Automatic annotation (TrEMBL):
Residues 6-216 form the Cytidylate kinase domain. The gene is cmk. Keywords: ATP-binding, Cytoplasm, Kinase, Nucleotide-binding, Transferase. This is Cytidylate kinase. Gene3D superfamilies: P-loop containing nucleotide triphosphate hydrolases.
Length: 219
């Protein structure tokens, strides 16, 4: 089979990264979590006391993705592994704001396009099918009910030792979606040629299988 790129977009906590990882492993492709890039820049923004000059912030930043057999994608920010900090509440609360800034998007999108140039990439995010990889061979727009997304995120947080309540997560997810869908630059929206996949009530295995079937159908 020819090398392809897969774009996986959708609202917060819709299960994109879990599924993208599985699909990438099944197809021997590389998984790229673009949200982690915006989170890393947000982490730096917070460390630096929330400066408003985003151009300067990204100009002074190096961001690299590496892969560890066990942990998966690691994010190196200015040479330091910050992966473990990226899901902290503080980062999550500020990431949509930082990701709405033009210099930040320009910086991240360039890197993402570079990573995908050789093909063989499963990339998840908000604007992958619309802006980053408009020519991706397969585009999936993944959705799920807010209740289910909050529930999944809570289990995820428990595993990572991050405290949260279901109500707090529901609110946070809804607010982030609202912000991501209504920003001026590259808002979250379904690409015209994307396949919508509602994962509510479905297992990880079922959703992975559906995407593998879509890949099979490409041939
Ligand atoms: O996917 P994740 O929840 O880690 O993304 C965190 C935030 O990063 C999103 O809420 C969104 O504001 C931003 N993001 C984006 N474009 C992407 C990926 C993430 O704007 N491609």
């Amino acid at each position: 089979m020819e090398r392809i790129n897969i774009a996986l977009d959708g609202p917060a906590a819709a299960g994109k990264s879990t599924i993208a990882k599985r699909v990438a492993a099944e197809l021997s492709m590389i998984y790229v979590d673009t949200g982690a890039m915006y989170r890393a820049i947000t982490y730096k923004y917070l460390q630096q006391g929330q400066p408003e000059d985003f151009e300067a912030l990204v100009n002074e930043t190096t961001l690299e993705l590496t892969y560890d057999g066990e942990k998966g994608q690691l994010v190196l920010l200015d040479g330091n592994d910050v992966t473990d900090y990226l899901r902290e509440n503080d980062v999550t609360q500020h990431v949509s704001y930082v990701a709405s800034k033009e210099p930040v998007r320009h910086f991240a999108v360039n890197k993402q396009q570079e990573l995908a140039r050789q093909k063989g990439i499963v990339m998840d995010g908000r604007d992958i099918g619309t802006v980053v990889l408009p020519d991706a061979e397969l585009k999936v727009y993944m959705i799920a009910s807010v209740e289910e997304r909050a529930h999944r995120r809570q289990l995820d947080n428990e595993e990572r030792g991050i405290e949260s309540t279901l109500e707090q997560l529901k609110r946070e997810i809804a607010e982030r979606d609202e912000y991501d869908m209504n920003r001026d630059i590259s808002p979250l929206q379904k690409a015209e040629d994307a396949v919508t996949l509602d994962t509510t009530g479905k297992s990880i295995e079922e959703v992975t299988e559906e995407i593998l079937q879509l890949v099979n159908d490409l041939q």
